[in-house]
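Study both lines:
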Amino acid sequence: MTLCLVMTSTQTLQSEPAPRTILVVEDEPFIRMSTVATLEDAGYAVLEAKDSAEALLVLARHEEISIVVTDVRMPGPMDGLGLVARLQQQRPVLRALVVSANACADDAYKAGAAAFLPKPFHAHSIVRAVTALAQAA
C-alpha cells in the first residue's frame, strides 16, 4: 500500500519564523494608522505609540520589538531623534528607521538610526526599508 500526501495550499513542511515585531511611533493619527496597516499587510506584527513617552512604555512591555519606525517631530519631552539616541543606550540591538519631512538623514544617523526615509513616502518604500532592517538583523 502506498500513501500519497498532497498539499493543497501554501503550507510548507517547515515552519516559518515568527514575524518581526515593529513599533511605529507617530503623532499624526492618519499617518500612524496607514503605516501600521501597510506593515501588517506585509506580514509584520505591529505595535504603535503616539509619542516618545508612550513608545518607551510599549518598549518596556514588549521585549519582542526588534525595529522602531519613528517620526522626528512629536509632542512631549523627547523628539524621535532623542528617542533613537536613548534606545541605542538602553537596547542597542534595536534597529531604528527614522521617517521625517523635517530632519535630514545625517541627523538620523548621528542619533543612531540604522535607516532614514524622507516623508512623504510610498507604502512600498517603508516596507522595503523595514524588510532591509529585518534581514540585516
